[in-house]
User: Fold this.
Amino acid sequence: MTLHGPDADIDDLPARAVRLITDRLANTELGRTTPPSELLPLFEDAITSHGLGVDRAWSLFETAVADHTLALDGPRYLAFIPMSPAAAAIWMDAVVGATSFSAESWLEAAGAVAAENQALDYLRALAGMPTEAGGAFCSGGSIGNLSAIAVGRDVAGGRRLVAVADTAHASVDNSLRLLGMEALVVPTGPDGRFTGELLASSLATTGLAAELAVVVASAGSTNAGVVDDLRGLAQVAHAHDAWLHVDGAYGGAALILDECRELFDGLGEADSFIVDPHKWMFCTAGTCAVLYRRPHLAALTHRQHGPYIEVLHTADPTDEWNPSDYAFQLTRRPSGLPFWFTLLVHGTDALGAAVRASMTTTAYARAQLAALPGIEIIMQPQLTVLLFRKSGWDRGRWQQWSKDLLDRGIAFVAPTTWKAETVGRLVFLHPLTTDAIVDQVIDTLR
Ligand SMILES: Cc1ncc(COP(=O)(O)O)c(C=O)c1O
Assistant:
């Protein structure tokens, strides 16, 4: 049995893989989820001493794995924060998986790192950060937040207090626990927006200003898609010598739209910023850009040392850039390459048009919902999250709605909690989510 090289025993596996990817690109169905009692028996005795061979193994992959997943990347996935990878990104991701470029260091994968850095610099310029800002791609927004807040902690000396709004993503809370930091949770008002004024008044009433190490702002909160008052927060944070981290994992993509730019006013003042191209910038899973205003500070926190890797480190880190210096990671696939390649193939105008398509779909859905009796839009969407209430519906009724839509293959939707009330929530990130799909969903609320 040959595992490696051109004579590996894999029969027609390449053709099967290409066919699956091609079919998936053409498929707009929602997929399904399956209870463990039904699914797990399919896997019994799959790992054997002699192997199943490609035919049986692939068939198990198709029937037990691929057939029992929801299409997070499809136009009917309107829950949580979906994704909508472009075809170019999907194919380049397959190539990245095949090549195993070791993109932790310039030494090992100079070309891949240079390409990723070109994409990072594009994002840096959109964010309005200074030219010397830089960072790396890491696996996702959670690791990006953790990595950036860790740098803020190290810069703050002994201070350990982090001001966060009650709207911050769950990974921020987890990061603080992992980093041994304390949260000062600032409640937001009905608009869900964390402002410089709210931060200043919270510091004044608690008397904790001297402890402040980091302020975390959202540029597109997960639950409601709200961009915080980045300029006001930067002013207050920096007045207290604190680090400003901006989590734009989801919403940062809207920077590409001129008409959205002013929402992000002040972002250029951030000490660190993340955006996930795998959310709303049409990339495959595993791609978060983390950027630092002063990258050398991040290298002090994240560079790994050991006798066998010192050879990677040059005297001037800006000369030969090592992505492993800028997030909690060493071995890494160059997850920014699919994003870089998509930018090269289609250009920034096409990317902008695809982002704008979801804004247009959101506006359409908002108008349709607002016209329904008994439905109330909770706030005007800044980005592509819609929150709404329906008179008489409690948590159980919303959950039933979500289950019904999934069972009928219409859409995957999930209710949420907004200011202690269970409400409906729809998120639009896929340019192929048509008005007809929106109509199908909204019809179920009549
Ligand atoms: C604002 C925000 N930050 C961070 C994250 C976490 O990102 P990931 O799921 O890539 O770890 C999310 C995920 O939805 C998010 O919306």
In short: Residues 337-370 form the longest helix (34 residues). DSSP finds 14 helices and eleven strands in the chain. The CA atoms of residues 59 and 75 lie 26 Å apart.
